[in-house]
Amino acid sequence: MTTDTHSEVERKVRDHFHDDAYRFDAIYETRKGPVARFIDNWWRGVVQRRLELNVERLQPLAGKRILDVGCGSGRFCIAFANGGAKYVLGIDFAPAMIDIANEIAAKAGVAEACEFRVGTFPEAVAESEGPFDAATANGFFDYVDEPAPIIARMRELTKGKMVMSFPKAVEWRIPLRRLRFWMKGTPLFLYREPDVHRLMDAAGVFDYEIVHLDRDYLVVAEV
Ligand SMILES: C[S@@+](CC[C@H](N)C(=O)[O-])C[C@H]1O[C@@H](n2cnc3c(N)ncnc32)[C@H](O)[C@@H]1O
Question: Which DSSP helix (H) or strand (E) runs through 69?
């Protein structure tokens, strides 16, 4: 008998992203019609801008070991490896996301620098695998009910930089986003700026800046 040790929130989030993996990854796809491109840009443009900002803030990437928590279809890991990172470990508990990540990394010719693992963070990463030069978590805390212990664990595993996004609670797209997730039965967690400061404090992250990136707060920390 297999025991599912996931909490109710984790189970719902994992099932949502397992079922939705191809649709989610299509946000990054550049070959699409003008209508799809316009909608993605207008509604989810932050996803691409987050990726660019992570790459920019983690320069120089050459030779780095990077941990990407909630890596999804691996787009960040692949961009880090393309930029010269020596080893990138992507963790995600949705198996379909990891399948896509492996497929795209192979096509991009960076499979050797990337390891994609189906698992739940923090359990899926052993102490002995650290320290990483950087740890990232983007579009991840939207789906986590207890972020502080996760941020603290990322900090313990890292000697360098952390980049993390937190979706704003007050933003014009929020009512529709809440409705979409409520209809699907998928949990969604939103943050005000004081919540982000409180979380960093609770997780022992003290040296950081908050960048306002469209619908997200992007925290860039030195640890
Ligand atoms: C919106 S996706 C973001 C993917 C990627 N970071 C990006 O921005 O393209 C969030 C991902 O986090 C994963 N996830 C959420 N909680 C997790 C946990 N505790 N452990 C591992 N993966 C998790 C989900 O399965 C999902 O694929």
Answer: strand 65-69
